[in-house]
Every structure is written in structure tokens, then in C-alpha cells.
Target: Xanthine dehydrogenase family protein subunit M
Amino acid sequence: MKTFDYTRAESPEAAVRAGGRFIAGGTNLLDLMKLQVETPERLVDISRLDLNTIEEQDGGLLIGALVPNSDLAADPRVIALYPALSRALLAGASGQLRNKATTGGNLLQRTRCYFFYDTHAACNKRDPGSGCDAIDGFNRIHAILGTSDQCIATHPGDMPVAMRALDATVVTLKPDGDRRRIPLGDFYCLPGDTPHIETVLEPGELITHIALPAPPPGARQLYRKVRDRASYAFALVSVAGVVAVENGTITHAALAFGGLAHQPWRDPAVEAALMGKPAEQATFDAAADALLTGARGFGHNDFKIPLTRRVLVTALRDLTGEPA
Model:
């Protein structure tokens, strides 16, 4: 590692005034620092701030940014109201990492693209303007949706996929004292010409909470993750679904996908293809067609396109109770 200054914040207000890179669990940042992919000049330790509670709010939950992933997954209210979120958290990493990883940090974890981690490779995300070796390289884990000529990396998270389907809102504190509420759908940026800009957070802005609204009544929830091995592996394709059916007709549909794009992916066209339609194979096929319009493989990851279709259709069968 390169040398850096370290300070411990005593309050969220002190943290945003400190002018450094925030660190809590450090489960991703420390790896990046060891490889010199990231070289912050100052770390601001926020791990002791009073942001580790889960409170009920307006029928939903207000989750502190420092709640460990393991605690969030095991909370009885999360299990009862947001089972897709609990399952997504338990599908991520290992038990030891979940004990350290925080809710806010999970939202901000960075891609696991091989070329991003290799400081000898060209990577516009790590070194803007250097190129993207992934496009013509080994790109098995890379994106098929929302890509650009500058970057085809994927967001690696499980928890953010479930939170996207559950309409989460990110609550932040800015250095000037203002607070923001950012819908998770507006939080992440697509790569475009600036893949190094991953979120809409401003310099020094701190995530303090994540707010979850009350879940739709009567809806089933699901989180399904397809990966190379049963544990401690990132998703090739994942889906979080919240679907309600009345008298054989789909009355609510919210679906988010991981492993496919630069951000947890949610496409209104997919949900439009489901809403008000019968819970049957033709409807599921139409939703998959909507999702994969414009999907593009880059060679090694071409298999993700048919795999995504199968994962979505199977998930919809389970969510609606439609037999295979």
C-alpha cells in the first residue's frame, strides 16, 4: 500500500467535513488499496458512528448504513417483509465477510472485472482514457446490457439487486449539511464515456441510511442467483422479483437483475410486459424478449443471453405459481 492519513470520525457531520475516503468494514476497499487500484490520501473511519440500527418507518424500514450484512439478513422484520433481500444477502460472499461488510458499503462495492484489478491492463474505469481490454479479452463475467465502447464491467452486488426490486431509497449527508434522498434507480450511473463515475454521490457525500417502503400486499418475493459454484462466487445472472397475482392475472411486478450490467438492472418494459397479463408462458416469454432487446455479448459472455432468459422464465413461474 501507499501511505495515507487516517482519521476517525466522531459524527456523520465530522465525517463529511474530514475530506477523505470513507472506510467501515473495508472488505472491498482494502483489497483495492493493496493492489494500488485505489490510492486514497486519507481514510476517514466511520465504523464507530451511530448508524447501525434498523428502525420501522411508515410501514417499511430505515436501515443504518453501518448495519452489517449478516445482521440485516437475520433481522426478523427483513425475513418477514423482505425475504428477497434476506436471501440476496445470504447469497453474497462468506459468513465472515458478511459479518464485516456494511449495508452502505455493499451499495458502493466496485466491479470485479479482471482488467480493473490488473494495473497493467487497459481499463477506463481505473484509468480514464486508457482503453478497455475486456471488450476483446476474456469477458465471461461481463455485461450484456447498458454497455458502452468504454466499459463492459458489471456491478458485483447481490443486496443492491434485491433493493432495486424493492424500491429502496438512499439517504445521504452532504458536506454542506444538506441531506438527500436518492431512489436507488437514480443512484448508479451507466458507463457511457465516463465509466469511472459510478454513482451520483458528490465528493464527501456520505450514505447514512437506506429506506425500504412497505412491500406490496400479497406479493411473492424471490432472489435467484446463478453462479459458477454454490458459495463465495459472484453472479453470472441473478434476479430479484416481487410479483402479485390475482385470479390468474399479474397485478404487480418489480424485477431487478444482477450480473448483466454496470448497475442493478431494472427495465420498465419488462414490467409493462407482465402487468395486467395472464400468468402464463407466453407472458413470461414476452417479458424475456423485452429484457433482452438490445442485449449484446462480447464473445466469452454470449451464453448469458439464453441463460438470462431461462433464469427469468423460471423465476416468474415460481413467483406466479405457474407449473413448468
User: Anything to note?
Assistant: The chain is about 30% helix and 20% strand. The longest strand covers residues 237-246. The mean pLDDT is 96. Residues 229 and 235 are 10 Å apart (CA to CA).
